[in-house]
Amino acid sequence: MKRNTNLLIIFLGVLATFLFGVRVNTWLNGDRSISQASPTPSAQPLTKSYTNKYCGISFDYSVDYLLNEATESARLVHTRSGDMISTTCSKELPKPPLPANKIETASVSGQKATLYHDASSKDGTPIDVVMFKHPKKGLEIAILGFGEEYKRIVESLKLTD
Question: What are phi and psi of 59, to 5 degrees?
Answer without folding.
Answer: -160, 165
